[in-house]
Amino acid sequence: HEIFPYADLIVPESEFNLYSKYKMNIVKIPDNILGLGSVRNWCLDHYKEKIIIMCDDDIKGLMFIAKITHKFIKDPVTIYQILVNDALMASDIGLGVFGYNQTADVRKYDFTTPFLLKGWVGGVIGVIGRDLRFIENNKCKVDVDFCLQNLLSKRIVWINNRYSFVQIRDRNKGGNSLFRNSILIKKEIDFLSRKWGKYFICKETKTNMTTRINLKR
């Protein structure tokens, strides 16, 4: 509510009162809409605008990483303008999805690639048009699949590599945390591996899990 005060807050009907303290426009979603893919598709059906941007509820700010030292941005007006700029650029070249760097680490930033044309985006994901849908049989790993669908049909995913939204992942209560567990995630990873084969790469280390799209562009 501090980073995106202009946004609609999507909440289950049964949890509406829990969110009434926030000074945002609160939109109820039926309780039987379960899982991230179903929620994203509900938003695509509910809103009539050509471009909609869906943001996770655990975002703390925006990091600019295209300099030697990073810059942390929390001003909602600045963030809004960056979102609009990328929405217009992606729309003008006829794309279906856009987003931002998944890693807010200046040490890993490549100054030769301020923008990427392949990969996957999540956390903040912009959808242009209604040509494609999110898969609903998965509860969590749906953004990777959506980006792969776009790469297959439109050839490009627009990623502003200079910015990364900072998230405190997997700590909030409610939402997808009701479903997320190691067994479900492994099942969904296996599904994506079977569906996309060599183009989907997922590696698990002792501390985290990394997901990438293996595709030349």
Assign an overall shape. Answer: globular
Hey, roughly how much beta strand do the residues contain?
Answer: 15-25%
The strands making up the biggest β-sheet line up spatially as 3-8-6-9-7
Order of helices and strands: EEHEEEHEEEHEEHEE
**Major pleated sheet:** 5 strands, mixed
Low-pLDDT stretches are: none
Query: What is the typical, i.e. mean, pLDDT?
Result: 91
What portion of residues is helical?
10-25%
Radius of gyration over all CA atoms, rounded: 17 Å
What does this entry look like structurally?
This protein is an alpha+beta fold and 217 residues long. Helices cover 25% and strands 24% of the residues. It has helices at 36-46, 76-92, 143-153, 182-196; strands at 8-12, 25-29, 51-55, 59-64, 71-73, 97-100, 115-116, 124-128, 158-160, 163-167, 200-204, 209-213. The strands form 4 sheets. Strands 3-8-6-9-7 form a 5-stranded mixed sheet, with helices on both faces. The longest helix is centred in the middle third of the chain and has 17 residues, at 76-92. The N and C termini lie far apart (37 Å). The model has no long low-confidence stretch (mean pLDDT 91).
How do the helices and strands line up, and which of them pair or pack?
Layout: E1 8-12, E2 25-29, H1 36-46, E3 51-55, E4 59-64, E5 71-73, H2 76-92, E6 97-100, E7 115-116, E8 124-128, H3 143-153, E9 158-160, E10 163-167, H4 182-196, E11 200-204, E12 209-213
Parallel strand pairs: 1-2, 6-9
Antiparallel strand pairs: 3-8, 4-5, 4-10, 6-8, 7-9, 11-12
